[in-house]
Amino acid sequence: MPHHSVSRSGPPQPHPRPAPAPGGAPVDAAVASGGRQPDLRPFMAAFPTGVSIVTTLDSDAAPHGLTCSSVASVALAPPTLVVCIRAASPTLSVLLAQGHFAVNLLHERARAASDLFASGAPDRFERTEWRLPLGAGGPHLTADAHAVADCTVVRAVGFGDHTAVFAEVDRVTVRDDPQPLLYGLRRYALWSEAASAPPPAAAGRPAPALVRPNASATATEGGTRVVR
Length: 228
Description:
The protein is of the alpha+beta class.
């Protein structure tokens, strides 16, 4: 189960159901349960994402890595992303010490790799096909990744039990026709199946007419066509 680090957390314990407020409005769970902090995991589980494996090398060139679903783009110029990793993760310690890592985005046939790197098995790299191209930030999982970003750490911010690692992307490698592995609601899904399903409201509804913008309403700004 991908969850930002090599440790796998079990299912959340059920919280007491809060009493409804007047008019049926929901009550904040933290307030209703005596001020306890709400469990964020069910909320984030309802936000499906892709799945990645973050890899790096230590000073002895030994590989380290973990499954991570907390990856986001920060900026396009300079190209920057952020990964959030459990603060106690050994991979995080190596990554910060070396200053480089790779983000491997998994394709839909790589569920086994996701589970393997989420388990923290010490022999996970021995059971995975990988290579280290010249200039790579970490091992590239050649059999399981449809895209890889090689990154250099620019900043790390600790917050609670996780650390947000901001990194500038040095190189991106993308395969043709990517089919990402997806994860949400505590289960995997395939991009090819999700993309092939018709939208619920599409059946029997005529397509909207295509309106072509007037030439006077378009402009080019920095090489990008803008429709006003």
